[in-house]
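REQUEST ID: PR-0412
SUBMITTED BY: lab tech R.K.
PRIORITY: routine
TASK: structure prediction, single protein chain
INPUT:
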Amino acid sequence: MSTTILAAGASAADNFGFMNAMKQGGPVTWTTAAILTIFLFFTLYILFTKIFEQQKIINQGRRVRATFWNSNSLREGAAKLEKNSAYKQIVDDGLAAQEQHGRLTDPVEAHDWLHGSLMRSEAAINSQLGGGLAFLATVGATAPFVGLFGTVLGIYRALIGIGQAGQASIDKVAGPVGESLIMTAFGLVVAVPAVLAFNFLQRRNKAIAEHLSAFSTDVLGYLASDGAVRPAASRAAPVKGTPPVGGTKAAAPATTTAGQAGGVQTRV
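STATUS: complete
OUTPUT:
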């Protein structure tokens, strides 16, 4: 008796289980589920790769604030940075712009030329950091509707089953309705992590961009003053042979701005 009851229960579970509901949906349901699975896979892939990329730049910024401005020159400081460092790219682009300014045939203010070059360098780095975020935003916005598509098809098939049977019996509607609920839940499972990942990565990118902008301002001040202006962090351990900092009135504003970049810990 108990064996018969257990067998009947197992048979009912098979008839109204997840896989049976998916089988009843046919190719359209499987295609919808496959699309949502691809969305979820790439969402997680972008999330973890971007976290790794962002953390790498954050660690580079900490090392820059600790040692970079204790060097005798920008070239010496850049040589100590990692080869593919974002901060090294800014320094190299600033030095290249300084060399190129002397070869310009059309007169351009050195400050404007350097500032524009450094801004382009920052924009390139920020653009690279923002790669993949558009996909996360797209998934967060469209995944619920992809799931809703499966939901509508499930309800439609349930209504067809009721019409063919002539009555709303549970065995006719359980499969299609279960399939529609599965698609709705699946769409939400994909959309919610995508939205959370987008906001999380966007916030970290904003913090990184602020520190890169502050460092770029320090580099600009250094180049525009021939090394007379550098962040206040270098005062604690002055390098022999470097010009004094703060000796002129023009040095004070740049020192204050640079000090913000050199003394604040990364807020990520």
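NOTES: Residues 1-13, 234-268 have pLDDT under 50 and may be disordered.
REVIEWED BY: pending
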